[in-house]
Structure formats: C-alpha cells, structure tokens
Design brief:
There is one protein chain. The protein is α+β, with helices and mostly antiparallel strands and 160 residues long. It has one domain: Nuclear Transport Factor 2, Chain: A (Roll). Helix content is 27%, strand content 34%. It has a 6-stranded mixed beta sheet. The protein is globular and about 50 Å long. The two termini are 14 Å apart. The relative contact order is 0.20.
C-alpha cells in the first residue's frame, strides 16, 4: 500500500469507521444489504479477502459483498478493538461469529483483523482482512453449520 497523499485527524478516521461498523450492524440484522458497505469505499478501492482474493474497484467490491455473504445469514462480526496507526491507517480486531453456541454457551468464533486506509470524506481506499481460514473451516465443521440458500463458495483460484 502506498503512502496516503493527505493526513487526516484520528478522530475523523475513527468516526468514519464507526459509521461503517454501524451500517454493518444494520446489515447483520437484515435491515440493509451487504452491498451498501461499498458506499464506504472510493471508486478505485482495493479489498483483499483471505478466501476471495483481491477485489478492485467499487463495482467489483459491491458484487463481492453480496456474493461472499450469500448464505451466511446469522454470521456476525463484532468489533473488539480499533486503533489508528501511522498516516491514515486504521486497524481493527473483530470476531467471525457463527450462529449458535457451544455446549458451554460460548460462541463459535474466530478472530480477524482488518487493515484499512482512510481516503477522506467518510471513505476508505483499501481494506485487507486477515484471518486463519483453517480455524474458520474447523469451526464450521465442529458447529455443524450449513450454508443457506444462495451460498457462493470463494473462487478456486482467487486473484492475489
């Protein structure tokens, strides 16, 4: 990732991310579509997902949100912490939380981290999500979770 052209106040970056997360919460509740999250990215943004690969441009990101989340109803991604790093980078830790819970009442979840670059005006120019896909696969198997209608598996050979 290249250095940002402009520096922004940490408070602006955090406030913009708070709005993004609030929209994601609405999506998780079923009050909005996944593709509405693309509104928080610049037209030329890059999104890197560990399973789906590199997604370039707003139209592709919009399609990615709908395709990658189809059939995952009930999954949530609660934020645990957020920090602004040098320049315009924001780093946030969150959980991939599957529906249901273990016998002891704890959730089926695995940690993830997002690294985002803020571009101004409430938009981000990139996001890279980092998580252990083997851990996710194990949780799916252990929990007995099955995908819902419209599920689309990630591409066999994602663009890296």
């Amino acid at each position: 990732m290249s250095q940002p052209e402009h520096e922004f106040a940490d408070a602006e970056i955090l406030a913009s991310y708070d709005v993004y997360v609030a929209q994601r919460d609405r999506v998780e509740r079923g009050d909005a579509r996944w593709d509405t999250l693309a509104d928080f990215f610049t037209d030329d943004a890059v999104f890197v997902d560990p399973a789906w690969g590199r997604i370039q441009g707003i139209d592709e990101i919009r399609r990615f949100f709908n395709d990658s989340m189809a059939g995952l109803e009930g999954w949530t991604f609660p934020r645990q912490w957020t920090a602004v790093a040098e320049g315009n980078r924001l780093v946030s830790g969150w959980q991939n939380r599957l529906p249901g819970s273990r016998a002891d009442g704890t959730p089926w979840e695995a940690p993830g981290v997002s690294i985002m670059v803020y571009a101004g005006e409430g938009k981000f120019s990139s996001e890279e999500d980092i998580l252990n896909m083997l851990h996710i696969a194990e949780l799916v198997q252990q929990s007995g979770w099955k995908p819902g209608p419209g599920f689309s598996p990630p591409p066999a050979k994602p663009r890296r």
